[in-house]
Design a protein that fits this description.
Elements: H1 3-7, H2 11-34, H3 41-60
Length: 61
């Protein structure tokens, strides 16, 4: 997810986006713990996406 795309969204949409990404990250963490998930790099990308969205949310306050 690119920062320019994030900046175009409304604050309500950003909050929803963070919740969706966190849910996906939670699923990957459980999958990794149980040995089902092989793509560990996706978790790192999701954490960075969460950080980008939260940074834009704080900038707009």
């Amino acid at each position: 997810m690119k920062t320019a795309d994030i900046r175009k969204k409304k604050p309500e949409d950003l909050a929803k986006t963070v919740a969706e990404i966190e849910a996906e990250l939670r699923g990957i963490r459980f999958g990794t713990a149980s040995g089902g998930t092989k793509n560990v790099k996706k978790a790192r990308a999701l954490r960075k996406d969460i950080a980008r969205v939260k940074t834009v949310m704080n900038e707009t306050k």
